[in-house]
Design brief:
Layout: E1 2-5, H1 16-19, E2 20-24, E3 29-32, E4 38-43, E5 49-53, E6 59-67, E7 76-84, E8 93-99, E9 107-110, E10 113-114, E11 124-131, E12 143-151, E13 171-183, E14 189-191, H2 208-221
Length: 244
């Protein structure tokens, strides 16, 4: 289950350096603010950048506020996702990928499409990713929280027709107010806000209003559904597409 929100309601933040580590990009990954409570990723023609949580989590709720690349961001991809260890041979991932755009055009994302604020390019979104404890959920694949900013102008904007304008580099995305309310494998429930939450995420679910809102977004803004892509999956859609 993935729950998303367009609000800017604060969630509990903490020191990024204490919870996350750089995956690539060297100096392009920077923390800022008091106690390093903000983080930025940058992309130039030489490299993108990324970070991930130091710990793995099995189930829980993961909050992060993002400010996407402003202005002409065509060709860029900003991500936020949970991923298990790919070396196990059985990969498990919950993924948001925000595709760059020409100024004034909609910002597309996979698996959803979100309308970009044309009036003020603040592009602030609060994302909540919840991996629920359900019978069909994986029980033995803990996941880390990841984010990255990279160039994909061979496909990202209008199918690769619009290329990255490197004269506008570096491109930068900003992160703040994260909160991880989860349980690590073989550990008690914990939260990065320093409080014992008793696993409040276990009982959180979409209410009737939230379900109607999600259907509205799917109807008017979703641009691609891989479960309906018969050309890609000629041998049949993936197993999760067959679930209710």
């Amino acid at each position: 289950m993935i729950i998303f929100s367009f609000t800017t309601t604060s969630v509990y933040g903490n020191n990024f350096n204490a919870v996350f580590e750089r995956t690539f990009g060297d100096h392009r990954v920077n923390t800022y603010g008091q106690d390093s409570q903000g983080l930025s990723l940058s992309l130039d023609k030489y490299s993108g950048s990324g970070f991930r949580s130091k710990k793995e989590y099995l189930f829980g709720r993961f909050d992060m506020q993002l400010k996407l690349v402003s202005g002409d961001s065509a060709g860029t991809v900003t991500t936020l996702y949970l991923s298990s260890n790919q070396k196990t041979g059985t990969h498990d991932e919950i993924d948001f990928e925000f595709l760059g755009n020409v100024s004034g055009q909609p910002t597309h994302s996979i698996p959803m499409c979100l309308a970009k604020d044309r009036a003020a390019e603040s592009n602030n979104f609060t994302f909540e990713i919840t991996r629920t404890l359900e019978s069909r959920s994986p029980k033995n694949q803990p996941m880390k929280m990841y984010s990255s900013l990279w160039n994909a102008d061979d496909w990202a904007t209008q199918g690769g027709l619009v290329k990255t304008d490197w004269s506008k580099a570096p491109f930068t995305a900003y992160y703040r107010n994260f909160n991880i309310d989860s349980n690590a494998p073989n550990a008690a429930t914990l939260s990065t806000n320093g409080k014992k939450t008793r696993g409040a995420w276990r009982t959180r679910d979409l209410n009737a209003w939230g379900r109607r809102r999600l259907r509205w977004v799917q109807k008017y803004f979703m641009i691609y559904d891989y479960c309906a892509d018969s050309k890609r999956f000629t041998q049949g859609v993936p197993a999760e597409c067959k679930r209710s």
